[in-house]
């Protein structure tokens, strides 16, 4: 089966459920990674990717400077890699001179530390932390003559797309098996980014994928005590992606059919089974960019709490907490286990990670202090008023789940005067149905980096993000100049981001 035939057969993906063993998904993805060219970048996708990168840079910089887990993580990595591994790659808001796998490890970790990173609801994961971290490190490791802004953007797109498509097939079910989709799927996307930038052959990409099947990891047990494991998951995935690619480049043989095989990635990491569809996984590669549904976060907390935060913030402006008798939060079944279980570390979280995954804390905090407090929320983990309001909150499974979509919720508030109010929010702020506006994207970035990047530095990074009109004009100019030239002879421009981080 040819790549075009496999990816585009028919007008829509097969309706046949389950893991069709005859469809060579791993090979199809490897062929696509090896053959895709920047000509597939459309103006709208270009704008989306640049917004995702800007958001990533702000979050990663803020975490590098402010997260409580940053100092011990940096100290540990430095103790293992004196001189940072002697490379030329940059860790955002930290410094340069890092080897690519070390830079990607730290950037991937920082990008995930504040729980402020982008989220793809259909796949229940954070694609940017692995996709952009791997692409930035690899792009910087290349000689300047090989740096090409469009190929860099393409590498990010490919990484997002692979990660989101794999995560969608894993589904929520993977979490019930104890795996974190962000990193288990993310390592394959990271390999895609590195491979696009290095222009690797399909055989090498396939071997790297095969090796990654033995490195895909991320345990959800971090929820037990709010540990830092979660923050490290995408960093580990990026680090290991570089290792897998290096091994494959030297001829080390990886497992075949690592994604679809009966003991491969999808079978091993998720019990979804018949809910999976391999035809859907690869259909429309390069034209149907599913990652564009990725949402930017307005709040530094698990995405599953965002509708709760928005509702509670609005309600808190109208009603004092003392008026509240009881709050019932109805969540989708899968979300309940992550943010709604009535355990001590959920109702009264003691660590920042526990607070990020507590619908109780997020609801009470937003009601009392508003929804715009950002990371300052976690300075109030021991706030007595939050404790008291949290004790009035009960999270339950929503029996009308279609009304809450992947990340929505329904809230019922009972007041001391006997009145009751019901509020539903199907899509939290940031989803395409409830969009984060361009001005909000830029404001979030400026707030995150204001304390340590001056206006000139912020402005330079902002300039690297093209507007829709600029993207369209750029594409028009490129078409006029390059329409008769093969892609490998077209004009190159250095990655806009490699010298700004």
Description:
With 501 residues, this protein is an alpha+beta fold. Helix content is 50%, strand content 7%. The strands form two sheets. The protein has a four-stranded mixed β-sheet. The longest helix is centred in the first third of the chain and has 24 residues, at 43-66. It is globular, with a radius of gyration of 22 Å. The protein starts with a helix and ends in a 19-residue tail after the last helix.
How would you briefly describe this protein structure?
50% of the residues lie in helices and 7% in strands. With 501 residues, it is α+β, with helices and mostly antiparallel strands.
Task: Detail the topology: elements first, then pairings.
Layout: H1 3-8, H2 25-35, H3 43-66, H4 70-80, E1 89-91, E2 95-98, H5 100-113, H6 128-141, H7 149-170, H8 173-176, H9 181-184, H10 186-198, H11 202-212, H12 229-249, H13 265-269, H14 278-282, H15 306-318, E3 324-331, H16 333-340, H17 344-347, H18 352-356, H19 359-369, H20 384-390, E4 393-397, E5 409-415, E6 420-425, H21 438-449, H22 455-463, H23 468-482
Parallel strand pairs: 3-4
Antiparallel strand pairs: 1-2, 3-5, 5-6
């Amino acid at each position: 089966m040819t790549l075009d035939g496999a990816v585009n057969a028919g007008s829509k993906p097969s309706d046949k459920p389950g893991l069709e063993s005859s469809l060579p998904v791993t090979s199809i993805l490897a062929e696509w990674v090896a053959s895709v060219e920047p000509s597939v970048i459309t103006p709208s996708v270009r704008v989306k990717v640049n917004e995702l990168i800007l958001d990533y840079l702000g979050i990663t910089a803020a975490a590098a400077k402010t997260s409580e887990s940053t100092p011990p993580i940096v100290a540990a990595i430095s103790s293992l890699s004196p001189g940072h591994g002697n490379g030329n790659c940059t860790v955002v808001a930290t410094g340069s001179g890092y080897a690519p796998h070390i830079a990607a490890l730290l950037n991937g970790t920082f990008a995930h530390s504040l729980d402020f990173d982008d989220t793809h609801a259909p796949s229940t994961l954070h694609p940017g932390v692995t996709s952009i971290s791997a692409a930035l490190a690899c792009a910087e490791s290349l000689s300047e003559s090989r740096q090409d802004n469009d190929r860099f953007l393409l590498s990010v797109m490919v990484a997002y797309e692979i990660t989101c498509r794999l995560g969608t097939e894993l589904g929520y079910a993977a979490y019930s098996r104890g795996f974190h989709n962000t990193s288990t799927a993310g390592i394959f996307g990271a390999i895609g980014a590195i491979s696009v930038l290095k222009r690797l052959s399909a055989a090498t990409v396939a071997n790297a994928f095969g090796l990654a099947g033995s490195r895909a990891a991320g345990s959800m047990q971090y929820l037990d005590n709010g540990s830092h494991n979660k923050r490290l998951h995408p960093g580990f995935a990026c680090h290991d992606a570089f290792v897998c690619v290096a091994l494959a480049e030297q001829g080390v043989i990886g497992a075949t059919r690592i994604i679809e095989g009966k003991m491969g990635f999808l079978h091993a990491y998720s019990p979804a089974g018949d809910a999976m569809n391999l035809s859907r996984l690869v259909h429309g590669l390069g034209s149907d960019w599913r990652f564009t549904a990725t949402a930017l976060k307005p709040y530094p907390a698990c995405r599953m709490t965002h509708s709760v935060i928005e509702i509670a913030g609005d309600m808190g402006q109208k009603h004092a907490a003392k008026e509240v008798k009881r709050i019932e939060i109805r969540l989708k079944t899968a979300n309940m286990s992550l943010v709604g279980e009535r355990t001590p570390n959920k109702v009264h979280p003691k660590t920042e990670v526990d607070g990020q995954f507590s619908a109780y804390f997020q609801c009470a905090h937003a009601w009392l202090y508003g929804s715009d407090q950002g990371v300052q929320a976690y300075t109030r983990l021991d706030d007595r008023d939050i404790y008291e309001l949290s004790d009035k909150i009960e999270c339950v499974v929503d029996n009308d789940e279609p009304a809450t979509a992947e990340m929505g919720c329904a809230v019922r508030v009972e007041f001391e005067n006997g009145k009751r109010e019901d509020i539903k929010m199907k899509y939290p702020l940031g989803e395409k149905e409830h969009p984060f506006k361009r001005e909000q994207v830029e404001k979030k970035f400026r707030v995150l980096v204001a304390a340590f990047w001056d206006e000139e530095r912020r402005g330079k990074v902002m300039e690297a993000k093209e507007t829709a009109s600029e993207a369209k004009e750029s594409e028009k100019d490129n078409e006029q100049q390059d329409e008769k030239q093969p892609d490998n002879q077209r004009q190159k421009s250095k990655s806009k981001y490699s010298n700004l981080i």
